[in-house]
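Pilot study result, target chain (69 residues):
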Amino acid sequence: MRICIISQSLYSLGAVQRVIVTLLNKMLENPEYEITVMMPYLSNESNIFGLDSNVKIVNTLHFEKKSIS
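Predicted structure:
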C-alpha cells in the first residue's frame, strides 16, 4: 500500500513533526507500506526525531529562486 503524507517540514522542533515521524516509523513495521512525505522545501537540518531512512522525501517546490532585475 502506498501512503503519502504532506507536511511543511519534519526537521523542525514541534509536536506535529514528532507525531508524524513516530506514526510513519511505526507504519514502516508493515512491509507492505511504501511511504512518501511531500514537503515544499528540503532542509539541511538534522533528522531530530529519527525518521526512518526508508521513508521517501519529495520536494514539491524544487526550483531556483531568481532575482528580478
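One observation from the pilot: Residues 2-59 form one domain. A full batch analysis is planned for the follow-on phase.
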